[in-house]
Please model this.
Amino acid sequence: MKRQDKADRIAAILDGLYPVPPVPLRHRDPFELLVAVMLSAQATDKKVNEVTPALFARAPSPAALAAAPVDEIRALIRVVGLANGKSKNLVAMAGLLLERHDGQVPASFEALEALPGVGHKTASVVMAKAFGVPAFPVDTHIHRLAWRWGLSDGSTVVRTERDLKALFAPDLWHRAHLQIIYFGREHCPALRHDPSACPVCSWAGMKGRLAEEARRRSRR
Model:
Protein backbone atom coordinates (compact mmCIF):
# COMPACT_ATOMS: atom_id res chain seq x y z
CA MET A 1 0.00 0.00 0.00
CA LYS A 2 1.29 3.48 -0.87
CA ARG A 3 2.29 5.60 2.10
CA GLN A 4 -0.30 8.29 1.31
CA ASP A 5 -3.11 5.74 1.00
CA LYS A 6 -2.06 4.25 4.31
CA ALA A 7 -2.04 7.69 5.98
CA ASP A 8 -5.49 8.49 4.61
CA ARG A 9 -6.91 5.24 5.97
CA ILE A 10 -5.25 5.82 9.35
CA ALA A 11 -6.69 9.36 9.47
CA ALA A 12 -10.19 7.97 8.88
CA ILE A 13 -9.75 5.46 11.70
CA LEU A 14 -8.45 8.14 14.07
CA ASP A 15 -11.32 10.47 13.21
CA GLY A 16 -13.79 7.69 13.95
CA LEU A 17 -12.23 6.96 17.33
CA TYR A 18 -11.35 10.50 18.41
CA PRO A 19 -13.36 13.06 16.43
CA VAL A 20 -12.63 15.89 18.90
CA PRO A 21 -9.60 14.86 20.97
CA PRO A 22 -9.17 17.02 24.08
CA VAL A 23 -5.82 18.46 25.13
CA PRO A 24 -4.81 16.18 28.01
CA LEU A 25 -2.93 18.88 29.94
CA ARG A 26 -5.25 21.14 31.94
CA HIS A 27 -4.66 24.85 31.41
CA ARG A 28 -6.55 28.13 31.20
CA ASP A 29 -4.28 30.31 29.08
CA PRO A 30 -1.11 30.20 26.95
CA PHE A 31 1.13 30.69 30.01
CA GLU A 32 -0.36 27.72 31.85
CA LEU A 33 -0.18 25.63 28.68
CA LEU A 34 3.50 26.47 28.23
CA VAL A 35 4.27 25.54 31.83
CA ALA A 36 2.30 22.29 31.63
CA VAL A 37 3.98 21.18 28.41
CA MET A 38 7.40 21.96 29.87
CA LEU A 39 6.55 19.76 32.85
CA SER A 40 5.31 16.92 30.64
CA ALA A 41 8.75 15.92 29.34
CA GLN A 42 9.44 12.39 30.65
CA ALA A 43 6.32 12.61 32.81
CA THR A 44 2.74 11.46 32.43
CA ASP A 45 -0.06 13.92 31.79
CA LYS A 46 -1.74 12.57 34.92
CA LYS A 47 1.23 13.56 37.09
CA VAL A 48 1.44 16.99 35.48
CA ASN A 49 -2.26 17.60 36.08
CA GLU A 50 -1.77 16.60 39.71
CA VAL A 51 0.89 19.24 40.39
CA THR A 52 -0.24 22.20 38.29
CA PRO A 53 -3.18 23.34 40.47
CA ALA A 54 -0.89 24.05 43.41
CA LEU A 55 1.82 25.43 41.12
CA PHE A 56 -0.57 27.85 39.42
CA ALA A 57 -2.05 28.88 42.76
CA ARG A 58 1.45 29.80 43.94
CA ALA A 59 2.60 31.29 40.62
CA PRO A 60 -0.41 32.32 38.51
CA SER A 61 1.57 34.63 36.23
CA PRO A 62 5.04 34.99 34.73
CA ALA A 63 5.82 37.72 37.27
CA ALA A 64 4.88 35.50 40.20
CA LEU A 65 6.80 32.53 38.81
CA ALA A 66 9.90 34.60 38.06
CA ALA A 67 9.92 35.90 41.65
CA ALA A 68 9.43 32.48 43.25
CA PRO A 69 12.40 30.68 44.85
CA VAL A 70 13.53 27.75 42.72
CA ASP A 71 13.49 25.47 45.79
CA GLU A 72 9.82 26.27 46.38
CA ILE A 73 8.91 25.49 42.77
CA ARG A 74 10.93 22.28 42.94
CA ALA A 75 8.99 21.19 46.03
CA LEU A 76 5.68 21.81 44.24
CA ILE A 77 6.65 19.68 41.23
CA ARG A 78 8.82 17.09 42.99
CA VAL A 79 6.71 14.11 41.86
CA VAL A 80 7.29 15.01 38.20
CA GLY A 81 10.39 13.62 36.50
CA LEU A 82 13.46 15.86 36.22
CA ALA A 83 12.05 18.26 38.82
CA ASN A 84 15.44 19.84 39.57
CA GLY A 85 16.08 21.00 36.03
CA LYS A 86 12.45 21.84 35.31
CA SER A 87 12.12 24.10 38.35
CA LYS A 88 15.16 26.10 37.28
CA ASN A 89 13.94 26.34 33.70
CA LEU A 90 10.44 27.41 34.74
CA VAL A 91 11.71 30.32 36.84
CA ALA A 92 14.22 31.35 34.16
CA MET A 93 11.57 31.06 31.42
CA ALA A 94 9.20 33.31 33.34
CA GLY A 95 11.96 35.87 33.83
CA LEU A 96 12.62 36.01 30.10
CA LEU A 97 8.91 36.38 29.36
CA LEU A 98 9.02 39.55 31.47
CA GLU A 99 12.33 40.75 30.07
CA ARG A 100 11.70 40.08 26.37
CA HIS A 101 7.95 39.80 25.87
CA ASP A 102 6.22 42.05 28.43
CA GLY A 103 5.09 39.00 30.37
CA GLN A 104 3.26 37.45 27.42
CA VAL A 105 3.85 34.08 25.78
CA PRO A 106 5.21 34.90 22.31
CA ALA A 107 3.41 33.57 19.22
CA SER A 108 6.66 32.67 17.49
CA PHE A 109 8.55 29.38 17.15
CA GLU A 110 11.86 31.21 17.28
CA ALA A 111 11.00 33.19 20.40
CA LEU A 112 9.54 30.18 22.20
CA GLU A 113 12.49 27.94 21.42
CA ALA A 114 14.84 30.62 22.78
CA LEU A 115 13.29 30.19 26.24
CA PRO A 116 14.96 27.87 28.78
CA GLY A 117 13.54 24.37 28.75
CA VAL A 118 11.46 24.93 25.59
CA GLY A 119 12.27 22.68 22.66
CA HIS A 120 10.65 22.37 19.26
CA LYS A 121 7.97 19.93 20.41
CA THR A 122 6.90 22.18 23.28
CA ALA A 123 6.87 25.22 21.01
CA SER A 124 4.79 23.30 18.45
CA VAL A 125 2.14 22.40 21.03
CA VAL A 126 1.88 26.01 22.21
CA MET A 127 1.79 27.45 18.70
CA ALA A 128 -0.93 25.03 17.61
CA LYS A 129 -3.17 25.07 20.67
CA ALA A 130 -2.69 28.61 21.97
CA PHE A 131 -2.32 30.48 18.69
CA GLY A 132 -3.88 28.26 16.02
CA VAL A 133 -0.69 28.02 13.97
CA PRO A 134 -0.44 24.72 12.03
CA ALA A 135 2.09 22.48 13.75
CA PHE A 136 2.62 18.75 14.17
CA PRO A 137 4.29 18.15 17.53
CA VAL A 138 6.20 14.86 17.49
CA ASP A 139 7.13 13.23 20.78
CA THR A 140 8.79 9.86 21.27
CA HIS A 141 5.43 8.05 21.17
CA ILE A 142 4.34 9.57 17.86
CA HIS A 143 7.83 8.97 16.50
CA ARG A 144 7.51 5.29 17.45
CA LEU A 145 4.07 4.81 15.91
CA ALA A 146 4.93 6.61 12.68
CA TRP A 147 7.85 4.20 12.26
CA ARG A 148 5.80 1.17 13.34
CA TRP A 149 3.11 2.00 10.77
CA GLY A 150 5.57 2.70 7.96
CA LEU A 151 4.74 6.40 7.70
CA SER A 152 8.37 7.40 8.26
CA ASP A 153 11.75 5.69 8.28
CA GLY A 154 12.24 6.40 11.99
CA SER A 155 15.70 7.87 11.52
CA THR A 156 15.08 11.08 13.49
CA VAL A 157 12.21 12.97 15.11
CA VAL A 158 12.87 15.78 12.63
CA ARG A 159 12.41 13.38 9.72
CA THR A 160 9.24 11.96 11.25
CA GLU A 161 7.75 15.44 11.66
CA ARG A 162 8.57 16.26 8.04
CA ASP A 163 7.05 13.00 6.77
CA LEU A 164 3.84 13.37 8.79
CA LYS A 165 3.39 16.96 7.66
CA ALA A 166 3.64 15.78 4.07
CA LEU A 167 1.04 13.04 4.60
CA PHE A 168 -1.58 15.01 6.54
CA ALA A 169 -3.18 18.33 5.55
CA PRO A 170 -2.05 21.30 7.68
CA ASP A 171 -5.50 21.79 9.19
CA LEU A 172 -5.30 18.20 10.52
CA TRP A 173 -1.83 18.36 12.05
CA HIS A 174 -2.68 19.28 15.63
CA ARG A 175 -5.74 17.02 15.76
CA ALA A 176 -3.77 14.09 14.34
CA HIS A 177 -1.03 14.71 16.92
CA LEU A 178 -3.55 14.33 19.75
CA GLN A 179 -5.35 11.43 18.08
CA ILE A 180 -2.14 9.43 17.69
CA ILE A 181 -1.24 10.03 21.35
CA TYR A 182 -4.61 8.71 22.52
CA PHE A 183 -4.49 5.83 20.05
CA GLY A 184 -1.06 4.79 21.25
CA ARG A 185 -2.21 4.69 24.86
CA GLU A 186 -5.41 2.76 24.20
CA HIS A 187 -4.64 0.54 21.21
CA CYS A 188 -0.94 0.54 20.30
CA PRO A 189 1.33 0.49 23.38
CA ALA A 190 5.07 0.01 23.22
CA LEU A 191 4.96 -3.13 25.39
CA ARG A 192 2.72 -6.20 25.36
CA HIS A 193 1.12 -5.15 22.10
CA ASP A 194 -1.02 -7.56 20.09
CA PRO A 195 -0.77 -6.36 16.46
CA SER A 196 -3.61 -8.62 15.32
CA ALA A 197 -6.04 -6.81 17.65
CA CYS A 198 -4.84 -3.30 16.80
CA PRO A 199 -7.12 -1.27 14.47
CA VAL A 200 -4.03 -0.05 12.59
CA CYS A 201 -1.21 -2.55 13.09
CA SER A 202 -3.50 -5.40 12.05
CA TRP A 203 -3.19 -4.15 8.47
CA ALA A 204 -0.57 -1.36 8.44
CA GLY A 205 1.99 -2.64 10.91
CA MET A 206 5.24 -3.71 9.31
CA LYS A 207 6.25 -7.09 10.75
CA GLY A 208 9.94 -6.40 10.42
CA ARG A 209 9.64 -3.21 12.40
CA LEU A 210 7.57 -4.81 15.13
CA ALA A 211 10.17 -7.55 15.40
CA GLU A 212 12.94 -4.95 15.56
CA GLU A 213 11.16 -3.24 18.46
CA ALA A 214 11.15 -6.55 20.32
CA ARG A 215 14.87 -7.08 19.63
CA ARG A 216 15.71 -3.59 20.88
CA ARG A 217 13.80 -4.16 24.10
CA SER A 218 15.50 -7.52 24.68
CA ARG A 219 18.94 -5.85 24.47
CA ARG A 220 18.14 -3.29 27.19
Summary: The chain has 13 helices and no strands. The domain at 30-131 is CATH 1.10.340.30 (Endonuclease III; domain 1). The chain has two domains: 3-20+138-219, 30-131.
